């Protein structure tokens, strides 16, 4: 039976950076990385960006060169899925009748793309954007004639996929259940800006509509039927409606959690010597007024991985990193600092018509988040305001001629 002083489940950003952080913090024991992917650890954000567009190859997505893992004495066990955890025996059961013993377990398995919950959801031509095989299958389906695509979900993944598909001469229709895109992630100013940008690139929208069924000819998708009664002919459906945390074995082993796995400020679960990091870890976040949330971002995965590694090495520091995100759509780069949830005021800084502006979010008069569109200066300078939850006059924030770093 294999064993590892630290066994890490998941080879995404959280898992790989936990392994790296352990070595950086002086951990000398054995480390085993277990992942379902058949390829070495690679970056995930490009999947809905330039990898989908065919502008980045697999070798350019590697998190580290393949030789790195051997050089750092980190073992990889790929194309392997965890089926069971025995927290008393400290043993993990794997596919292929394998088992691994651990001293400490770090769960960084992320999640699986949420599937459409309707008839026809598994027809050929219905895709998600989560793993490389998903995107490869999508790319293979884009032949010379099959160019009508329905994207379901008006969050960042759906919008990024829609932008890239529109850029490949696809006729894209985006379906969103709420009255505007990005309804849960941003203010109305940003939603309307991105909607206008997508429309200018030929993307059509169906807001306040849901997919009731995916229809097909045999096994192949031919259209989607909406809750409004409309039927949209298509050759492909892309679901960008979030993820389902991959936590089944941990929950079955007795770990506490509802939406994901609950962790404390050091990323420890309720099971002894078991940590959880990344998309699947539910934690009390200081930038959400202490609410227990999951964050699906590279920043969160990396910073939680570092917090867990330091705790294992006896140098525990509570996880309290400021959340940040980015999204690339067409020639637009959106950079976000902080969390806008719960805001009660927005301040528009600059003119969206120039395609370079910012939206500042306030709660009780204090800055809690910044969305910067093609405006890196506001993103960089606004981070300090977010970290300090600075109380600032809204009229000063709205004056784009005053640098944010000069506002007191």
Q: Counting H and I runs of at least 4 residues, what is the number of helices?
A: 9
- Overall residue-averaged pLDDT value: 91
Strand content: 25-35%
The computed structural class is alpha/beta
Largest sheet: 7 strands, mixed
If you compute it from the alpha carbons, what radius of gyration comes out, rounded to the nearest whole angstrom? 22 Å
Helix share of residues? 10-25%
**Broad shape:** globular
Distance linking N and C termini: 60 Å
Total DSSP E strands: 25
Task: Describe the fold and architecture.
22% of the residues lie in helices and 30% in strands. With 408 residues, the chain is α/β, with parallel strands linked by helices. Strands 1, 2, 3, 4, 5, 6 and 18 form a seven-stranded mixed β-sheet that branches. Strands 8-15-9-10-11 form a five-stranded parallel β-sheet, covered by helices on one side. A five-stranded antiparallel β-sheet has the order 21-22-25-24-23. Strand 9 (148-152), helix 4 and strand 10 (171-176) form a beta-alpha-beta unit. Helix 1 (13-24) packs parallel to helix 7. The protein is globular. The protein starts with a strand and ends in a 10-residue tail after the last helix. The mean pLDDT is 91.
Give a short synopsis of this structure.
This protein has helices spanning 13-24, 66-71, 132-141, 156-167, 188-200, 248-252, 298-312, 376-388, 394-398, and strands at 2-9, 31-34, 74-77, 82-86, 91-94, 98-107, 111-113, 126-128, 148-152, 171-176, 204-207, 211-217, 220-226, 231-233, 236-239, 243-245, 261-262, 274-276, 281-284, 292-293, 324-329, 332-338, 345-349, 357-363, 366-373. Strands 1, 2, 3, 4, 5, 6 and 18 form a seven-stranded mixed sheet that branches. It has 408 residues and is an alpha/beta fold.
